[in-house]
Specification:
Blueprint (H helix, E strand, L loop, with lengths): L2 E11 L5 E11 L3 E5 L6 H8 L7 E6 L2 E2 L4 H6 L1 E4 L11 H11 L6 H10 L15 H13 L5 E5 L7 H16 L3 E6 L2 H7 L2 E6 L2 E7 H8 L1 E8 L15 E4 L4 E7 L7 H10 L4 E8 L2 H12 L1
Parallel strand pairs: 3-8, 3-9, 6-7, 7-8
Antiparallel strand pairs: 1-2, 1-4, 4-5, 9-10, 11-13, 11-14, 12-13
Helix pairs in contact: 3-5
This protein binds adenosine-5'-triphosphate and magnesium ion.
């Protein structure tokens, strides 16, 4: 895989002395959906803003498809579309004019077919002659996406794309993002919603207090850091845990009706067969049995909590 975005040793200290980014190294691969996950104030918007040339880095290097964002700003910026976190639109303009204007900013010739395609994909076509101020919040957000896509960027940044968006629009956004990826667009999104990262991303980066604390494939991350639990519902309550079961670090719930055995997914040799065998030997009858895996949310809370 080739990197579309390559960030090395990036630091940002704001003029008031606050260090928002601390030695960031990150490579984004062509065609992937990368989710940058982190709490409020972690530095997500700062990072995106630097890559998009809105904020200057204090030190470090960023390349977009090989173009340095300082030395080669225009070429680097042309590759990128940005959907900002804050709604920023001129309310008196029509949808069509706004989107066309965005394309023009990049010196690209008019392309009515492309603009029509994105407006249709975003279900804005019927609203193309409306002024922005006559649109609902969700529609305005779609206009921001249309603006970001107007110059046909190869990389799209979405800064909290679904904050304050209803469930239906959220699903639509996800569909749209998947469609873009199929067209070969690389997508970097920031989110607070862990289920969004879980649903959408190929890889996840966790950022906290200006530091990237982890980057991994979503599947690997969940496997590596996830814990699994085996829930055993017993036919009869176990008022006391027999001595033979004490070695297993079991948790007893519902007055002994339920036993929970927690194990690491990383360890291949967990003790489940032995546990079940021991239960059998003790004559403990199992009524029901299921396993549960920790969600990305559990993992995230644990990570950020530990490193805070
Ligand atoms: N212009 C600025 N001057 C000084 N500090 C700033 C400035 N912009 C941002 N910061 C600080 O940098 C830190 C990172 O802010 P940033 O907006 O990048 O966070 P974020 O991860 O995007 O948060 P959120 O999830 O709330 O959008 C915060 O502590 C913020 O207060
Ligand atoms: Mg932000």
């Amino acid at each position: 895989m080739t990197s579309v975005i390559s960030i090395t040793g990036l630091n940002k200290i704001y003029t008031d002395g606050f260090q928002a980014l601390d030695d960031i190294h990150l490579d984004i691969e062509e065609g992937e959906i990368f989710a940058l996950l982190g709490p409020n104030g972690a530095g997500k918007t700062t990072l995106i803003s630097i890559v998009c040339g809105i904020v200057n880095a204090s030190s470090g290097e960023v390349k977009v498809r090989g173009h340095d964002i300082r030395a080669d700003f225009r070429l680097a910026r042309q590759q990128i579309g940005l959907v900002p976190q804050e709604l920023s639109l001129s309310i008196f303009e029509s949808v069509m004019a706004t989107v066309n204007f965005s394309r023009g900013l990049y010196g690209k010739p008019r392309d009515d077919a492309w603009i029509e395609k994105i407006l249709r994909d975003l279900t804005l076509w019927e609203k193309r002659d409306q002024r922005i101020m006559a649109l609902s919040g969700g529609m305005k957000r779609r206009v921001l996406i249309a603006k970001a896509l107007a110059h046909q960027p190869r990389v799209l940044f979405l800064d909290e794309p679904t904050a304050g968006v209803d469930v239906e629009l959220r699903q639509e956004m996800w569909e749209l993002v998947r469609g873009l990826r199929e067209d070969g667009v690389t997508i970097i999104l920031t989110t607070h919603y862990i289920d969004e990262a879980e649903e959408m991303a190929d890889r996840i980066g966790v950022i906290n207090k200006g530091k990237i604390i982890l980057v991994d494939e979503k599947q690997a991350l969940m496997k590596k850091l996830g814990k699994k639990q085996l829930h055993l519902v017993l036919a009869d309550k176990l008022s006391q845990l027999p001595e033979k079961l004490q070695q297993f670090k079991l948790e007893s719930l519902d007055d002994g009706q339920k036993l929970i055995y927690t194990f690491d997914t990383q360890k291949e040799h967990n003790e489940i067969p032995l546990l079940l065998k021991t239960l059998g030997e003790l004559g403990v009858e199992i009524h029901d049995l299921q396993t549960e895996q920790s969600s990305l949310e559990d993992i995230f809370v644990e990570l950020v909590g530990n490193k805070a």
